[in-house]
Amino acid sequence: MVDREKKAFVYLRDRKAGLLEKTDSGYRFSYFPEYLSLQDAQPVSLTLPLTHEPYESEKLFPFFLGLNPEGWLLDLTSRTLKIDPENSFNILLATAGDCIGAVKIIPSDEENN
Question: Model pTM?
Fold first, then answer.
């Protein structure tokens, strides 16, 4: 599979909440100002509280990593999609558009809005 886009939109309950990016130094997650201005805005995770400042990390944030399949399902997914199982970001972009729970991740090149 071709290397995926380096940006993805993060939705919480079908609201576009933020942007997850792969950067030269790691990863960045930022909430959109429009989302933060909502009266009922909630964080996508307790580990990523609402803030105007972007979160930066050398490794993929544990919350997002936790959305990826594990074990035999990761093996099957990576073989089927032809993505290195160590490439957690691309696995996330390929699988988290339809995951269990309130959060979904949509690669920016696939969004149709």
Answer: 0.89
